[in-house]
Design goal:
By secondary structure, the protein is of the alpha+beta class. The chain has helices at 40-50, 94-105; strands at residues 6-14, 21-29, 54-59, 62-70, 75-80, 83-85. 22% of the residues lie in helices and 40% in strands. A hairpin with a 2-residue loop joins β5 (75-80) and β6 (83-85). It starts with 5 loop residues before the first strand and ends with a helix. The model has no long low-confidence stretch (mean pLDDT 86).
Length: 106
């Protein structure tokens, strides 16, 4: 009997005035499908970027991405697995990005 491996990520977000704070976990299967939220981690990161909320993303206690205001480009930016974007059209495709990352982990 083979069990499927899943991967868990934690997103923590905070508004600039620290008035708004939330934490959410996301579980993905090996094919890169989010099992517990149709928006998924990248969708939530894009919401944070658009609404100007700072966020950090953790996998097993290690920083793997986040959202912040990039002072060099004067834009809100997001990063995940060393892929950076600051427009919705540059946002990576979740399934492919996660599947590629998981392939490297196994």
């Amino acid at each position: 009997m083979q069990t499927e491996t899943t991967f868990a990520f934690l997103l923590e977000a905070m508004s600039p005035c620290t008035e708004t704070f939330f934490s959410r976990s996301y579980t993905y299967d090996q094919s890169g499908i989010c099992l517990d939220d149709p928006v998924g981690l990248i969708g939530q990161m894009e919401k944070c970027r658009k609404t100007m909320l700072e966020a950090v993303v953790w996998a097993n206690g290690k920083y793997i991405g986040g959202t912040w205001f990039d002072v060099t480009h004067q834009k809100w930016t997001a990063e995940l697995f060393d892929m950076t974007w600051n427009t919705a059209t540059d946002c990576p495709q979740p399934v492919r990005l996660f599947a590629d990352h998981f392939q490297k982990m196994t």
